[in-house]
Amino acid sequence: MHSGVTRTTAWLSLVLALLAGRAAGQGGQGGEEGGEGGIRLEKRWPLDSGGTVRITSPLGKLRVLGWDVDTLAVSARLEPRIGRFFGAGDAHVRTLELAGRAELEVHVPRNVTIWVKSTTADIEVIGVDGTLDLTSVGGTIHVIGTPQDVTAETMSGSVELAGGTGRARVKTVSGDVLLRGASQDLGASTLSGRITVRAAGWQRGGTGVQRGRFESVSGDIRFEGELGRGGVVQVESQSGKIEVSVPATTVADFDAVTIEGTITNTFGAEQPKPRATGAGSGQELRFSTAARGEAGGGGGGAQITVRTGTLDLCRHSNVDPAPS
After folding, report:
1. Cα end-to-end distance, the chain, whole Å
2. pTM summary value
3. How many CB atoms lie within 10 A of CB 91?
């Protein structure tokens, strides 16, 4: 876990240096002067429905919106005097680069691939169903919709995915992570941020999280909501507190071990025991709801594995609604 966070930190720092150098060393297109509001520009290009858009925007705000038109439309407000815009490419791949602080809104066909690199700009993506690769060293990342694949990385900014994904991987150093919706394959890791997962089954025809892995070093982790039938969820924190809250009807095998902390179980009657092996004063709890003969028993249940400092296991009744 430590090596992964170290690699992420070093890589994001390199992005910061490259973006700063690019902004200082290139010229580009300006636009109409907007007075105190900065330089305004509008651009449009044809873009294939399965094309790729690569965006480099160091500072400010970036908003990407999916629409049902095979056109890339850009609306930007650039910083006075030093703001620059660069656009190149064709109907298959289009590259957008900005220098200085900018407020950028980009409309793209829904199924495109989006690649964004930023220093401190906040990134928001709404209604894009393709692949997203988003990085902001210090800005926030917010995704609403049902993209097929998401990679989101930031050092100190927060990340929120709301809707559902085929696959998602989120990494932060100190930023908090909020994941809402359903996913076939969901993963999040952080050094000291808090991870919250609210799994609901209202999209993609699935139920909750089918496969999930959530890790922290010192940050707390909370998983609440539904698991896919036969799904596998692993939650691990070296010193943070973990809370797992699932519906009372959940059919699953539970396997929980704490390092030195306690386990509180209000999901069922089973009680933790002192760890049988290893150093420390931790506890362990292992039981299966399928073994009780509950609804859906007899195979196909989920697996929930927890490794942590302290664990609360309880029943969950409310499912997070779909975002408006």
Report:
1. 35
2. 0.85
3. 13
